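Sat 14:20. Reprocessing the chain from the morning session after the first attempt stalled halfway. Input below, unchanged.
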Amino acid sequence: MQHTGTGGKLTYTLAQSPSLGTLSLHLLLIMKVSYFYLLGLLVSSGQALMQVTISLSKVEISVGQSKYFTCTVIGEADNIDWFNPQGEKIISGQRVVVQREGIRSWLTIYKANVDDAGIYRCQATDSKGHAQEATVVLEIYQKLTFEDVPSPQEFKRGENAEVLCLVSSSPAPMVRWLNNREDVTDIDDRRFAMLPNNNLQIKNISKRDEGIYRCEGRVEVRGEIDFRDISVIVNVPPEILAQQRSFNATADRLEDITLFCRATGSPKPYITWHRNGKLVEENEKYDLREDNTELTVKNIISTDSGLYVCRATNKAGFTEKQSFLQVFDVPSSPYGLRVIELSQTYAKVFFNKPDSHGGVPIHHYQMDFKEVSSEIWKVVRSHGTQTIIVLGNLDANTTYEVKVAAVNGKGKGEYSKTEIFQTLPVREPSPPSIHGQPGGGKSFKLSITKQDDGGAPILNYVVKYRSKDKEDQWLEKKFLGNKDYIILDHLQWNVGYEVHIIATNRLGHSEPTVFEFLMPPKPNIIADTLFSGLGVGAVIGLAVAALLLVLVVTDVSCFFIRQCGLLMCITRRICGKKSGSSGKSKELEEGKAAYLKLLLKEENGKEALSAEAIEIKISNDIIQTTESDSKA
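Finished this time. Tokens:
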């Protein structure tokens, strides 16, 4: 190797070495000489040489670990900076911190995560802007990590359960589920399956699926393994066992009654009682025993009647059942008592039904009334459960007080508030109400309906009447006030009449009631004579008898003249056929005799026809028939 220098330049000439070893030695020598030559040039030119090194060139840590790196600079460096894998200058923060002290700078990464992986650069810069740098490779892997794996995990019976196990690593772990040291996915039960997110699904989970399930993760490249044991609990919704649905008690007898409510479920249900939407708590009225499964209602009164709700609750849900407590009691008092109609002698009183019938249907209402000045109460019962009662036989212009109570199978309830009223003073009566109908013969019947008598008895009725067609004088009659009808006699046929009727009491008389009517036409005397004594049935009977008689006469005539008809048919069946005129004449004689005997019988004790009349008619018929036969 030759070395020549011209104009500050060095020239090396590599001579051919006799062997390969000699060549390697020469190359190494050339590199060293070149290094020192360059260093000399830099020094001679006034520029210092910087050397940057990092303590580690490649580092591997797991997620969550912390690590720091040291960057050392040889030479005059004004700035030492760190750059992240994205090429951004690192500025100190909470988790990534940069510190410098002299020729050293430290980069610290706390709780590293996967995103922190990459190539980090330490760059030194001198005053002239010349820079030197060194790099370090940071590799981050994630160890097996179980995040938020709750235990126990609870599910409701019958639902599709998903047992959670969030496990992660890099590379991704292999996960399997074990129960009683057996891989559940290998069990011959299709209800078990591992989902893509590594959770365990149990379809239609039941109480027998309860137990400890192990979620196991493995990273084979590192031989890493870890697990979590998870307790699986299956909750069963509460169910209330059969219980009595209704209870009966009687009020105001210091009775106690106990309601029962027992339930099953997992976990054990908690029992509460409710009434009218409010929680029943133990106090002087209610006693709760046996974990609230028994509720005793003490000193029963009517207001204790109603629904009591038993509610069983656990983590899986709740259920309710109702029990009805029927408390029998007398009814509460009616209210709103008032007089709705009043006269001198009666009062019509209305009231509202009581709010409570006491659990037993109301039979009737009892109304008590008396004069204010009297101590004796009189009692009136209602018609069934009607809420209007009429008080009669009252004295006019008198003050009364009245009260009412409801009565059921348990007895009479409390009375309503007392109402006071005064009857009207005595006055003239109101006009009576009249309607009429024809009587027998020349008479007419007037029916009288008494109206308000004015507080005093009706003494009599004064009746005035006359014909409308003729300007006759008024005829007047008086009848006692206790009569409910009047008969006017000796009237004219087919004549209209006008009637005025006045009611009279001790204070005077009423306004007249005007009534008009028309007498019927004169009846048919013959028809009346024949049938006046007979009823409709008798007349119909006579008509039917006459019709039958006509039919019999016709049939007999046909028998004798034409040898036909019903009678002829009967005779032939009984006597047989006979030929010749002698036979025919004999039949005629026998038939004639039989027919005469039949017609001479009496009907209802009266002779229908005379024998002579019948004989003449038949003889004429026979003669006519004989003549016609001879001509033929």
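Residues 1-47, 578-585, 595-632 have pLDDT under 50 and may be disordered.
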